[in-house]
């Protein structure tokens, strides 16, 4: 659980984010979801310090002090409670890693090396899109069912795919927009045997209910745990149960296969099932959007998206409510507040926003603009929420603060009173991010400065549900002064809207936005704002610069090193001397900068300095060519490659101890057999050479050239050398044998030359 008094994280979390940024790049730290809410196996509310989505895996990261998991130093209740929390994360299918604060402070390089091993040197991070309101289960009236326009469009697109003889596709529809209904109706239109797969019992049960309502004329069975009904027309099963019992099915048993939560489909269990069955059509369902980051994994499986519906589109077609915005400028200065890629420094932020003037402005704004509309105020901490609620109460407004730390009964009582209208204002910090939503919410106050797109959008989602008599959601952005690089998120920055009119539409159904712009151009106030004290002529341009979005399309300096065949020291010197000029420099602090280059800038400098460009498509070929053309000042390079081929694990990792042993054995065998050991000045001419001297020689000579080519990486604190993953995973056994053969031929020619000279 987070501390009850926290603006947006702890100093320990800030330290972890800094180490993460140093490891993978500051722009990648934006994928860390801080204080991610989940429920343990007893349905108790919990928070993971961080959650990451890496490829198809969710990864929880816990940052602890040494004592927090030591049974001898903490109360037994807390010790076992922490165990329950961790085990519940594992039960959810997450990978869980824990890091100690003390170790982060005294051994930062060890933490960074471990992160590369645990998450991969070049991970495929994805945004966690828990944005939209949770859709409550609904009973479906199959007789009077009328599909919505996006569902009709999706069904038409899926039929079109089958007409074109396509056999697999992806349906991306935002949470709460009826994608399961769409899938069932499509399967029904195909009329064959259908298998529906999901990863939780709850999703399986919901699917059974949907099939029963929409396709009642067929038999519907479950395949979960002890319930095994494999012979019905429709089988709804858990992915785990089906994967463990494939022998109960024939590969041709099903004409139609539905994979729910399809963004998990690259996991081994899903791959096993997908590879086994041979349906006529396979449909993947996901609420996870196609993003700017790498989504090739899911599209590699499902080939193409048949139809998509994101949060903005959901508003445009009327599935979610229109959103308006009023920006309230404060006199708070955040320019000196320290920050990292994810959040502000907690102490700096507390000193700035916990001031009476800003709190009073929040209440005064409500009294001036809102009055009786139900409002959620998102605050920076529990203390902040209590202070704001107290000020509202002093102004005779029924208000209360809510948080995850409250007793469940008390919290539910407050939420029920808000839903009924008895309470007008809810002041919340962490609670309402977890999926709670009240459709009758008409106003949101974004009073918590945050740099997190995820957090801001999740808060926005709490008010976007449709409700009778609700024509829009009004969002109040409290705009604090900030530098270009630590500007908080806002509605306009989130959706890249430069033009701001007080109370104007930010998201709306098609056509309404353009029509309203015409009214503002004539100085007229839209009818929807008649009751709001805004002036139609209030207008400003919003600075929507977002360094993370800018950097997302660029190459970091650490990536620059990977992309050219020169040493990292050379790149650093050229940057320092002004020979390489970054396109974007992000100042995280006075002494901490992150530098980014455009793709065309990389190509320009590569051509200017005669560097070879390296990427994942040619890295293996360059490696193979390097082996063939390997220069032989000494025999060391082929010996290193032979050691790697012999000892590397399936991820291309080799223990340095094993490499040292291989080198010692190689040269000792030559000595024992009376062969030339090496040429003059080689350290291996010394029969008493120590392991330390061998290791020093390996890292100075043969390894360094491979490192400069971004072919190998030395993880110092773990004592391993790793071949670049994009090379190693694409090397088959024949290619490895060919590499070893070339190394043997090179060594034979090299030593033959030495013997001839001698």
TrEMBL record:
<dbReference type="GO" id="GO:0005524">
    <property type="term" value="F:ATP binding"/>
</dbReference>
<keyword id="KW-0378">Hydrolase</keyword>
<protein>
    <submittedName>
        <fullName>Helicase conserved C-terminal domain-containing protein</fullName>
    </submittedName>
</protein>
<feature type="domain" description="Helicase ATP-binding">
    <location>
        <begin position="160"/>
        <end position="307"/>
    </location>
</feature>
<dbReference type="InterPro" id="IPR050742">
    <property type="entry name" value="Helicase_Restrict-Modif_Enz"/>
</dbReference>
<dbReference type="Pfam" id="PF00271">
    <property type="entry name" value="Helicase_C"/>
</dbReference>
<feature type="domain" description="Helicase C-terminal">
    <location>
        <begin position="362"/>
        <end position="506"/>
    </location>
</feature>
<dbReference type="GO" id="GO:0003677">
    <property type="term" value="F:DNA binding"/>
</dbReference>
<dbReference type="InterPro" id="IPR001650">
    <property type="entry name" value="Helicase_C-like"/>
</dbReference>
<keyword id="KW-0067">ATP-binding</keyword>
<dbReference type="GO" id="GO:0004386">
    <property type="term" value="F:helicase activity"/>
</dbReference>
<dbReference type="GO" id="GO:0005829">
    <property type="term" value="C:cytosol"/>
</dbReference>
<dbReference type="GO" id="GO:0016787">
    <property type="term" value="F:hydrolase activity"/>
</dbReference>
<keyword id="KW-0347">Helicase</keyword>
<dbReference type="Pfam" id="PF04851">
    <property type="entry name" value="ResIII"/>
</dbReference>
<keyword id="KW-0547">Nucleotide-binding</keyword>
<dbReference type="InterPro" id="IPR014001">
    <property type="entry name" value="Helicase_ATP-bd"/>
</dbReference>
<dbReference type="InterPro" id="IPR006935">
    <property type="entry name" value="Helicase/UvrB_N"/>
</dbReference>
<dbReference type="InterPro" id="IPR027417">
    <property type="entry name" value="P-loop_NTPase"/>
</dbReference>
């Amino acid at each position: 659980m987070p501390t009850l008094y926290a603006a947006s994280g702890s100093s320990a979390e800030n330290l972890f984010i800094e180490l993460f940024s140093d490891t993978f790049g500051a722009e990648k730290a934006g994928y860390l979801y801080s204080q991610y809410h989940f429920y343990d196996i007893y349905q108790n509310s919990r928070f993971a310090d961080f959650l990451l989505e890496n490829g198809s895996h969710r990864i929880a990261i816990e940052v602890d002090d040494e004592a927090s998991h030591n049974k001898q130093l903490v109360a037994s209740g807390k010790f076992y409670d922490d165990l329950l929390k961790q085990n519940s994360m594992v039960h959810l299918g997450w990978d869980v890693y824990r890091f100690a604060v003390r170790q982060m402070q005294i051994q930062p390089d060890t933490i960074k090396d471990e992160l590369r091993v645990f998450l991969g040197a070049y991970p495929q991070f994805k945004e966690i899109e828990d944005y939209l309101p949770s859709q409550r289960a609904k009973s479906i009236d199959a007789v009077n069912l009328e599909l919505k326009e996006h569902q009709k469009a999706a069904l038409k697109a899926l039929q079109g795919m089958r007409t074109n003889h396509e056999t697999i596709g992806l349906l991306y529809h935002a949470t709460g927009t009826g994608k399961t209904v769409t899938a069932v109706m499509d399967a029904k239109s195909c009329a064959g045997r259908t298998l529906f797969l999901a990863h939780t019992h709850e999703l399986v049960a919901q699917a059974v209910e949907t099939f029963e309502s929409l396709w009642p004329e067929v038999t519907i069975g479950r395949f979960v745990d002890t319930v095994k009904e494999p012979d019905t027309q429709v089988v709804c099963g858990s992915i785990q149960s089906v994967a463990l019992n494939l022998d109960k099915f024939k590969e041709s048993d099903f004409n139609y296969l539905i994979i729910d939560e399809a963004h998990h489909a690259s996991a081994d269990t899903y791959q096993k099932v997908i590879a086994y069955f041979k349906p006529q059509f396979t449909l993947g369902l996901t609420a996870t959007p196609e993003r700017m980051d790498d989504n090739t994994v899911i599209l590699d499986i499902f080939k193409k998206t048949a139809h998509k519906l994101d949060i903005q589109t959901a508003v445009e077609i009327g599935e979610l409510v229109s959103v308006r915005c009023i920006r309230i400028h404060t006199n708070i200065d955040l320019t000196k507040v320290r920050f990292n890629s994810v959040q502000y420094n907690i102490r700096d932020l507390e000193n700035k926003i916990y001031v009476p003037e800003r709190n009073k402005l929040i209440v005064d704004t409500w009294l001036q603009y809102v009055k009786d509309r139900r409002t959620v105020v998102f605050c920076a901490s529990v203390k902040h929420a209590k202070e704001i609620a107290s000020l509202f109460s002093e102004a005779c407004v029924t208000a209360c603060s809510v948080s995850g730390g409250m007793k469940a009964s008390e919290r539910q009582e407050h939420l029920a009173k808000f839903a009924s209208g008895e309470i007008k204002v809810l002041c919340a910090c962490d609670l309402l991010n977890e999926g709670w939503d009240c459709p009758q919410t008409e106003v949101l106050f974004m009073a918590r400065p945050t740099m997190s797109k995820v957090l801001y959008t999740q808060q926005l989602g709490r008010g976007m549900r449709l409700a009778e008599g609700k024509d829009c959601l009004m969002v109040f952005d409290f705009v604090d002064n900030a530098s270009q690089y630590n500007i908080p998120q806002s509605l306009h920055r989130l959706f890249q809207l430069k033009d701001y009119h007080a109370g104007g539409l930010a998201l709306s159904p098609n056509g309404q936005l353009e029509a309203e712009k015409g009214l503002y151009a004539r100085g007229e106030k839209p009818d929807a704002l008649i009751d709001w004290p805004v002036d139609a002529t209030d207008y400003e341009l919003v600075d929507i610069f977002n360094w993370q979005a800018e950097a997302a399309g660029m190459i970091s300096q650490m990536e620059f090193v990977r992309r050219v065949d020169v040493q990292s020291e050379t790149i650093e010197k050229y940057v320092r001397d002004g020979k390489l000029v970054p396109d974007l420099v992000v100042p995280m602090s006075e002494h901490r900068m992150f530098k980014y280059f455009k793709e065309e800038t990389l190509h320009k400098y590569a051509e200017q300095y005669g560097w070879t460009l390296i990427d994942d498509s040619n890295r293996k070929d360059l490696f193979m060519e390097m082996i063939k053309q390997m220069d032989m000042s000494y025999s060391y390079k082929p010996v290193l490659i032979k050691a790697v081929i012999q000892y590397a694990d399936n991820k291309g990792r080799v223990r340095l101890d094993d490499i040292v042993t291989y080198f010692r054995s190689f040269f000792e065998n030559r000595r024992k057999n009376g062969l030339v050991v090496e040429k003059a000045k080689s350290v291996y001419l010394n029969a008493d050479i120590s392991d330390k001297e061998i290791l020093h020689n390996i890292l100075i000579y043969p390894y360094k050239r491979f490192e400069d080519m971004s072919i190998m990486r030395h993880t110092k604190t773990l004592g391993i050398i790793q071949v670049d993953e994009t090379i190693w995973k694409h090397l088959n056994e024949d290619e490895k044998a060919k590499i070893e053969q070339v190394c043997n031929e090179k060594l034979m020619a090299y030593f033959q030359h030495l013997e001839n000279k001698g």
